[in-house]
Design a protein that fits this description.
This protein is mainly α. Helices cover 72% and strands 1% of the residues. It is built from 26 helices and 2 strands. The protein has helices at residues 2-7, 11-16, 23-37, 41-49, 52-60, 65-79, 83-91, 94-102, 109-126, 129-142, 148-162, 167-176, 179-183, 192-206, 208-216, 223-229, 237-247, 251-259, 262-270, 276-292, 295-303, 306-313, 319-335, 346-352, 355-361, 368-381; strands at residues 340-341, 344-345. A two-stranded antiparallel sheet has the order 1-2. Helix 23 runs parallel beside helix 26.
Amino acid sequence: HANLLMQLGLAPKVVALLDHGEERIQVEAAWCITNIAGGKHEYSGMLEQLGAPIKLLRLARSPSLVLKEQCLWALGNIFGDSPKLCADLLKAGIANDITALFKYSSVPLSLLRIAVWIVSLLIKNGACYDLIKAFIPYVAFFVTLEDSWILSDSLWALYYISCTNDNKSISYMLSKVSMKNVIKHLTASNNIPQIVLWIIGNLCSKSTDGIRDVLTANLLDHIPKLLAESNYQSDMKDVFRILSCIADGPPGDIDKLLKGNIFSLIHNIINSSASLNTKKGCVRVIRNACKGATEKQIWEMIRSGILEDLNVVLQVEDAEAIYIALKGLEILFTVSKQLYFGEKKIIELFDSLGGISRIENLQFHANSTICKCTKGILKDLLGGE
């Protein structure tokens, strides 16, 4: 129907009906515009040129909840992919209209869903501290709700904030949003857990406060189930991105990984038929943890099988995976050169697995970066052994 309306050139007449004095006609006109804007991408631009957004915003301020709902729905379809139009609507006060709506004592569920969706679109297209500050207290509440529409759009709003490079906005979000209320949705269905992982991954990669908050919210309790449900076959890059960020932290964070049996899980994954990408994710966690681990933690990691894991990855065909494993070994040998595990030094333990021979063979690898790294390990770290 949207295509037919546009082909017949009726869009200007439909937009003009928004100025009709009868509410019923205005609702029907807004419904038609909703469908038009949901069609081809260029239709939204044409509706903008006809002045539809400002007319819709004006009608969205009507006391009629039915008219308000339809107009907001139409606006979302029009400006969803337009940062410029989003900026214009923000200047016209749409943020205040939405926050005022959230203060109503009673809002129909369908209208609340659309309003939360509008919030996610506004943050996506026009994220700034003032806008985020206005919406975050409401989003923090909405993520506690079980309605799948409201929950999904609330999480998308948090994801868009986590994508910004504005530390002030991210810090404000962390101060207002309980990560426990976000992380609990890792057990949800549909695409909800994936959005949650994206949020956590962004926060952990940008903020030590983000890592602190997700660890305090018991994120690691969910990791075994996430990995088990994947049967170690799917690409769990988001999970391992998060674990790598945590492993790159201070000994206190590494201790939480050890207590969560993360390295034992990694050992099982590397020695399974998991995908190569998943195994690379595992090795990144090991490499990062080796950098900041204490002597005691290194011993615990070795008990969990990290030497065997690195040795296994040295035998794969993928150059990137081999290089990550080599860098992990380089760090491990450097920080623990004089450490003993039982009666053997760590390097001797690795040699007993056939690992040193494999490193020596990698001097002749086709990849020059691997050759260089290998020769460095042999010269600087193993030369005196």
